[in-house]
Design brief:
This protein has 5 helices and 3 strands, in the order βαββαααα. It has helices spanning 25-29, 56-66, 71-74, 77-86, 92-112; strands spanning 11-19, 32-40, 46-51. The protein has a 3-stranded antiparallel beta sheet, covered by helices on one side.
Length: 117
Amino acid sequence: MREVKDFGQETVYFVHYSKLPDDISATYVHKVVGIGFLINTETGIIEDIMVTLISDLCKEFLAYLIVGHNIDKDGVDEIVDKIDKRFFGYSQKAIMVCIKGVHARYSQWKQTNRKVY
C-alpha cells in the first residue's frame, strides 16, 4: 500500500491552465501548460508546485523560483518578474498567465472561505 503524505487541513491545491505556443515540443504532448500551487492557506506560503511541462530541469527550476513565496503578503508580481527575467523558455508567457490565474483562483477561494471568528 502506498503511503500518503499528510498535507494538513490548511493546505489547498489550486491549478490553472494556459494554451502553449504551437511551435514547441511540449505542445505535441499537451496543448496547454498547467501550473498548480500547493498553498498553506493559514500562512500564504506556496509549499510545492506542479508543472505539466516535459523537462524535469524546467520543472525543478520553476519550483526553485516559486516554492517558499508568500502569496498572501507578496501576491504574484515578484514571481512573474522572476519568470520574466530568468526563464526564457518558449512557454514563458503561458506560464505567467497560469501563475496569475492560480492567484486569481486562490483570491476567489479566500473570499469564499474566509474564516469567521
